[in-house]
User: What shape does this take?
Amino acid sequence: QVQLQESGPGLVKPSETLSLTCAVSGYSISSGYQWGWIRQPPGKGLEWIGSIYDSGSPYYNPSLMSRITISVDTSKNHFSLRLSSVTAADTAVYYCARLYYYGSGSYPDHWGQGTLVTVSS
Amino acid sequence: DIQMTQSPSSLSASVGDRVTITCRASQSIGTFLNWYQLRPGQAPKLLIYATSSLQSGVPSRFTGSGSATDFTLTISSLQPEDSATYCCQQSYSTPLTFGAGTKVEIK
Assistant: This one.
């Protein structure tokens, strides 16, 4: 059974960098699929942040591209998100997910429970 | 970006009712449409992928249909545990985009 668990600070100051890690169990990251991050601001819909292939090649939402880094650590079987220069608009529940890809798109088939990150001084 | 529009934004129905949620894409996405169930504090759950394929372990009362720009999620006989928000997502192209969600409440 694939399980994902997000971890990281729940409070980040404006202009600083948000860093989250997703620990994966029950499946090896290097065995395939994409691995990605999705967020949901309070009262709003889900927003895809970006994903990374098991090979390590990332691709990002253009709306956030200049501030995002997603990386994979296969030795620890986890992947990470860094979002720089955060503002209050980045306050959200952040989910990590495994994505099945086919054609030009992909969909999350397993998700973490999510972690609330608040941006505030 | 492909915009996904869901309706209604919320609904209230009784146990045993048939419930239908619609999702419209701003351009044709073929059958690259997926449905999720979201409950507070829980991991979102994939229900339907590729418009009509039932994810393993999901009850058969959930069905999906549609193509191109118009899609439907149907719950044939609403159960108490179906109280949740349901969200569609297009996997036709990046950036991946989601509908705003439909909150289903049990009367």
Chain A is about 0% helix and 55% strand. Chain A touches chain B at residues 4, 44-48, 59, 61-63, 95, 100, 102-114 (CB under 8 Å). The CA atoms of residues 39 and 121 of chain A lie 21 Å apart.
